[in-house]
């Protein structure tokens, strides 16, 4: 009887000792990924309202949409009219009759590796004012006093509007709106007050005259 009791006690101690042994936890690690892709836009940008740039402008025959598409675009440029006048025999300056002429450039290229926008440069050139074979000798155009407006608040550093005086057909394409590196990301408007764009004619000549303005947008800022 005593032997049986001793054996039972030994077995119980063995079981208790085993259950008290520590169990070591194991840790494993797995990885997954998250991704995002950006592509350059290929659509057009609507002309924004120059008085309320957060709103799309209604169709405006004086400032028509260019229809240009892509990541860097000139979205609108003004068709300028200087009206109808009786001839005068001395030099005369005529102001554009446009109510609200403006330019709009959109830069949707994003930032470069340094975290800054890349900049751009808009230039304008003009031909002679002609009526069939006739031309207005010495006519020059001036575009001054523009203000710069952004499409949305918080777009970053603004581009710069440049005054142009006495532009004629003999001039090279001249900078009118430019963004240095770090400027001009998003949609920006160069808005002219009424009656500041002008045409000076040294001597009038009977006829209906028109000129072509060529707007050239470069992906490089002004050097």
From TrEMBL:
Span of the signal peptide: 1-24
Ranges for region Disordered: 33-64
Top-level taxonomic group: Bacteria
Record flagged with keyword Signal: yes
A Pfam family annotated for this UniProt entry: WxL
Keyword annotations: Signal
WxL domain segment(s): 26-221
Keyword Signal appears in the UniProt entry: yes
Coiled-coil residues: none
Full protein name: WxL domain-containing protein
Species of origin: Lapidilactobacillus mulanensis
Taxonomic lineage from the root: Bacteria, Bacillati, Bacillota, Bacilli, Lactobacillales
